[in-house]
Amino acid sequence: MKPRTKRFALIAIGIVVLAGAAAFVLNAFQSNLVFFFTPTQVHQGEAPKGRMFRAGGMVKEGSLQRDGNSVRFVVTDTAQEMTVTFVGLLPDLFKEGRGVVAQGKLGDDGVFVASEVLAKHDENYMPPEAKHALDQAAAAKAAQSLKAAP
């Protein structure tokens, strides 16, 4: 083989190896990517079907139901509500009327099946996405009530 042909073969092999490594990294990144959706966005069908995502808002007062290790509650953004089921131990800070973010999948029946539930740290903390979504929902509700008033 000529030196030029060897050099070309090595460059070609290097490009193939780099392309393969890039493909593995991008595939791992995409499979671990988890988006956040509000109950309104889930209700509008914006949430992915059959994929993990995070949903959050406030735990509706009086919606918490415990059955042994299973928990069922409603998450609301003041505009829409979404039922969440979870099997496991809830965080100590989880309470009705407080902010929560749940990670899981949407079931065929429209119930969100959570694999992980996260509660906010203290009275002032809320994930920025959840805070923004709650503010938008409150503004939309206020705008609707202004339209309804004569």
Q: What does this protein look like?
A:
With 150 residues, the chain is of the alpha+beta class. It folds into 2 domains: 1-33; 36-148, Nucleic acid-binding proteins (OB fold (Dihydrolipoamide Acetyltransferase, E2P), Beta Barrel), CATH 2.40.50. The protein contains 3 helices and 7 strands; from the N terminus they run αβαββββββα. It has a 5-stranded mixed barrel. The longest helix is centred in the first third of the chain and has 30 residues, at 3-32. The termini are far apart. 21% of the residues are buried.
Keywords for this entry:
alpha+beta, single chain, 150 residues, OB fold (Dihydrolipoamide Acetyltransferase, E2P), 3 helices, 5-stranded mixed beta barrel
Quick rundown:
By secondary structure, the chain is an alpha+beta fold. It has 3 helices and 7 strands.
Topology overview:
Layout: H1 3-32, E1 36-37, H2 39-43, E2 53-59, E3 65-67, E4 70-76, E5 81-87, E6 99-106, E7 112-119, H3 128-148
Helix content: 25-40%
> Which range does the strand content fall in?
25-35%
- Named at the architecture level, the CATH assignment of the largest domain is Beta Barrel
**Main sheet summary:** 5 strands, mixed, barrel
Strand order of the largest sheet: 2-4-5-7-6
The tally of structural domains comes to: 2
The CATH class of the largest domain is identified as Mainly Beta
Number of helices: 3
Question: Which of globular, elongated, flat, extended, rod-shaped describes the shape?
Answer: elongated
| Distance from first to last alpha carbon | 88 Å
Rounded to an integer in angstroms, the radius of gyration calculated over CA atoms is: 23 Å
H/E element string? Answer: HEHEEEEEEH
Structural class: alpha+beta
Uncertain stretches of 5 or more adjacent residues: none
Reported by name, the CATH topology of the largest domain is OB fold (Dihydrolipoamide Acetyltransferase, E2P)
Determine the CATH superfamily of the largest domain: Nucleic acid-binding proteins
The overall average pLDDT, rounded, is 84
Number of strands: 7
